[in-house]
Amino acid sequence: MLSAAQKKEFWEVGVIVVESAYSADDLEPLRQRHQQWIEESRQHEGPFGEMLDGRPRFDVEPSHCAGAPALRRVASPEEIADEFLDLLRDGPMLEAVADLLGNDLRFHHAKLNCKLPGSGTTVKWHQDFTFDPHSNDDCITAMLFLNDISSEIGPARVVPGSHRGPLYSLWHDGRSTGAVADEVAVECESKAIECLGPAGSLCLMHTRALHASSENQTSGPRSFYIATLTAADAIPLAPCAVPSIHAGRIVRGEDPGRIRSVAFTMEVPEIPAGASFFNQQAGS
Asked: Do residues 61 and 70 lie in contact, with contact meaning Cβ atoms separated by under 8 Å?
């Protein structure tokens, strides 16, 4: 699915956007289900639903209310909606990641991240790998754009080449903040590139890449379906903060029956006490 130039760009930069990988017809059932969850959120004053570990599945901003819903995450949507599970059965996402990591792929976790108009949702600078360490770093965060992604809508911003750099701590003053230190974040801001594209595009990001995103300043929603996919011989080293009955499943190829490891050092990640890492980043 990917050209030689795209594969080269991914390994050099740490992120690529594959435009229009999915059609409007492919996206429509996903959008309909998402809208159903937004409408359901109007009936709740705070996070609701339940993941495997008992924490809320649906996370909302503190400003959330019936008149101005601010749903910001649906954890493990593949558990409760076949429309999302189908993305892990076959299709462009698996094909593109296989072009980068090889044919044997394992599913780790997924979520639907939302920035609804006026919600104020932001994401501070971090690396996914420090939340979800594996025995090796052949791990990709695959993001499917459910809407057109422009500079004004709060796109993912990535520091080019940072996937080949150090793993930065999420711990500060004895607390897991879910974000890198302020001085690192300042440096990231000056180097970042935006990941833009029409609805249906796939953004493929190495999980060691530093990234963040700002507030949605438009009148429409900004929604990503995000799946972490790994080489089948990359084994999780810590409990997942977004548990799923499908975690560890081979979604393409075969289980090699071996573990491949690379050397790195980092603090043990902390599972958020609340619905998601947004609470860690907010300091609550």
From this structure: yes
Asked if residue 211 lies in contact with residue 157, where contact means CB atoms within 8 angstroms, the answer is yes
pLDDT, tens digit, 9 for 90 and up, residues 186-205: 999 999 999 999 999 999 99
The whole-number pLDDT of residue 284 equals: 58
What is the band of 229 on the pLDDT scale with cuts at 50, 70, 90?
very high
What fold is seen in the domain 4-282?
A: Jelly Rolls (2.60.120)
- Identify the residue whose tokens are 């004895």: 174
Question: Is the pLDDT at 277 greater than 90, yes or no?
Answer: no
Cα separations in angstroms, 43 against 38, 48, 54: 10, 10, 20
pTM above 0.90, yes or no: yes
Spatial contact of 164 and 131, defined as CB atoms under 8 Å apart: no
Q: Enumerate the domain spans of the chain.
A: 4-282
